Amino acid sequence: MTNNRSLAGRLKVIVAFLLVFGPASLLVFIGTRGCEHKFKELNDFGAIKSTEFKIYSDGKLFPKSFSDFKGDVLLVTTLQKTCPGDCAISMWHVDQMLYQLIRQNKRKKLKQVRIISFATDGKGNKLPEEELKTIHESLRDNVEDYDPSLWILASGDVRKIYDFEHNGQNLVQKGKQYYGGESFQELILLLDKKEHLRMVLPGNQEGLIRRMKEDLALLQKQYDKQRKTKGK
Questions:
Q1: Cα separation values, 31 from 24, 115, 139, 197, 220, Å
Q2: What is the largest CA-CA distance in the chain?
Q3: Strand 187-191, strand 169-170: pairing
Q4: In the Cβ-directed half-sphere of 146, how many Cα atoms lie within 13 Å?
Q5: Alpha-carbon distance 232 to 227, whole Å?
Q6: Is 163 exposed, middle or buried (0-12, 13-18, 19+ CB in 10 A)?
Q7: Over the stretch 40-94, which tens digit does the pLDDT of each residue have?
Q8: Which residues pair with 63 in a beta bridge?
Q9: Which residues contact 21 (CB under 8 A, 6 or more apart)?
Q10: Separation between Cα atoms, residue 182 and residue 130, nearest integer Å
Q11: How far apart (Å, rounded) are the C-alpha atoms in residues 149 and 94?
Q12: How many CB atoms lie within 10 A of CB 159?
């Protein structure tokens, strides 16, 4: 009887988790696997689709692609011109938990980590390029020691970037429960140095952004382990 109650309790927790986090959780729940010496390694979900976009720098736009950042670890998000007050992600927590960590360690272990935020109109569509200045000013005014080379503002076909499928589930979902009716706007992607997706988590809650910080550390440990192995 006790075992049945315990099982029922666990099932309720799982159902609640799925209801809160939606289809993205199907990628999340298999996000790590055990390795030798109890070392955890993030799963490799495969390469994201190659796509071209533009980055905003000094009031100008420059063509780029993810291949230009090969060798860098990337955190990919969206941003809206209504940020930080009305934003698909918690911009303040991304700043405090991820960006400041990257900035403070940019010459050390995190020197190859960057955030790329794609501007949307709030409904999942690409924001007109002439309106990128508003978001850039928001980053400059609200982020301590904002460095546009570390937190990059970009414009492009955002849905194509997030159009990633695993186990029959796609990150691009529609529904009233999502910001602007589009699930992907709330998600943070963690891409490794080969442009492979290693983790995806909603970026609108402190606890989940903290989890992404931990996953970033796991990925860095994986690279550290590889370097030490090659050095032997």
A1: 11, 20, 30, 10, 15
A2: 67
A3: unpaired
A4: 18
A5: 9
A6: middle
A7: 789 999 999 888 999 999 889 999 999 999 899 999 999 999 999 999 999 999 9
A8: 54
A9: 28, 202
A10: 23
A11: 16
A12: 17
Per DSSP bridges, beta strands 169-170 and 165-166 are antiparallel
pLDDT, tens only, 164-211: 988 888 999 999 999 999 999 999 999 999 999 999 999 999 999 999
The candidate with the shortest Cα–Cα distance to 200, out of 232, 173, 231, 227, is 173
For the question of whether the overall pTM of this predicted structure is more than 0.85, the answer is no
CA distance 189 to 215: 11
Residues 6+ apart with CB under 8 A from 217: none
Q: Where do the domains of the chain lie, and which CATH numbers do they carry?
A: 2-231 (3.40.30.10)
- Per-residue model confidence as pLDDT tens digits over 18-48: 444 454 454 443 444 443 334 578 999 999 9
Residue 229 reports pLDDT greater than 80: no
Q: With 0-12 CB in 10 A as exposed, 13-18 as middle and 19+ as buried, what is 222? A: middle
Partners of residue 69 on adjacent β-strands: none
Rounded CA gap, 16 and 116, in Å?
Answer: 31
Residue length of the chain:
232
Structure tokens given for 166: 């695993």
Measured at the alpha carbon of residue 159, what is the angle toward residues 156 and 165, in degrees to the nearest 5? 135
Tokens standing for 36?
Answer: 């030798």
pLDDT digits (tens, 9 = 90+) for 137-156: 999 999 999 999 999 999 99
Tokens 């360690």 identify what position?
105
